[in-house]
Design brief:
Blueprint: H1 2-12, H2 18-26, H3 36-44, E1 49-51, E2 61-63
Antiparallel strand pairs: 1-2
Length: 67
């Protein structure tokens, strides 16, 4: 269920970081660690795309896949 919630959030709000996704889904208890593995699984399954280098100046952001 959480995987689908994350995927839906990314579709509705493209370009968000894992921290932003976690805060949207869990509120004050939304830490990137709660969604990192799910975002990676969605990326590996090609259900979302990850952009950025992962560094402080260019964090990973998640997007729906290009059609």
């Amino acid at each position: 269920m959480l995987l689908e919630d994350i995927e839906e959030h990314i579709r509705q709000n493209p370009g968000r970081t894992a921290t932003e996704i976690a805060k949207a889904l869990f509120g004050d208890h939304g830490y990137h660690q709660r969604v990192n593995n799910h975002c990676l699984a969605l990326t590996l399954a090609k259900r979302v795309e990850r952009k950025g280098t992962g560094g402080p100046g260019d964090p990973y952001t998640y997007h729906p896949p290009d059609p």
